[in-house]
Amino acid sequence: MPLSASLARGVAPATPGTLHARTVTGELSAPPRHGLTVRFGRGEKPDVDLGVGVDDLRVSRRHGELTYLQGHWWLRNTGQQLVRLPRGRMMHLTTEPIPLTTGYTPLFVKGSGYREHLVELYVSGHDDQGPVSRRHAETVRPETWSLDDDERLLLVVLGQRYLLYEEEPRPLTYRQAAERLAYLRPEGKWNERKIEFRVEAVRRRLHGTGFKYQLLHDKSEGRPVDNSLLQNLIKGLVESTTLVPPDLELMEDEADWPDSVL
Fold it and tell me: Which residues does UniProt assign to the signal peptide (predicted)?
């Protein structure tokens, strides 16, 4: 059933399960009616209910749809380009539909070049009436994580490229970090083994605290052969502003460092 037909029947969009959708070119609300489908893409009505990427030929005229079935809104990619969801999840034309959870879900339609077109989705729960304006409310501060002085210095050294906001940064190796720490804090007796132990201790402490990224490997997968968990740790600390660019001052002036540790 198309959205226009449902709205024409006068269903109030305020019950739990109501879908609210918004792009830069429009917005709509749709009631949780079995079989109802909301379509979005570059095209015009009646082919789509919500326009997205209307000036981008990489976006399909009917790029995606949401259908209400079995108590959920199910998202399906019907376009030629990928759709990106939170946590890096991608949907292709052949991907099985996925159900939306209650609350806010952003999705991005891949476009031309580096363009990505945002579609904001919100599914009302039993205790709300959808997204509301909070322009005058106090700003919620980012959730940061506690680090002791040694941990902060270690992670700043390992993650200095992240704090410089370089493109596609990578952590320093434990060997490189040990050389720099030996110069900065010789009394700390830093070496690769100690660094590995301290990093693992931080990962274990933050695991299960709501940290954004995975910090521990599944033991059934065996010992990891990459440093993805270290990247997750540093990336999450930087994105949460637990580590910030002024922390680079802990490394003092690298111009005075000997060439052997640069």
Answer: none
Residue 219, amino acid? K
Q: Which two tokens stand for residue 227?
A: 């440093």
- What domains does the chain contain, in order, with CATH numbers? 3-123 (2.60.200.20), 149-261 (no CATH)
Distance CA 49, CA 70 (A): 22
Per the listing, tokens 């893409």 go with 41
Question: Hey, which residues does 120 pair with through a beta bridge?
Answer: 22, 106
State the Cα–Cα distance between residues 42 and 64, nearest whole angstrom: 10
Q: What's the whole-model pTM score?
A: 0.70
148-175 pLDDT, tens per residue? 999 999 999 999 999 999 999 999 999 9
CA neighbor of 205 nearest in space, from 172, 238, 233, 171: 233
SS3 content of the chain, % helix, strand, coil (to 5): 30, 20, 50
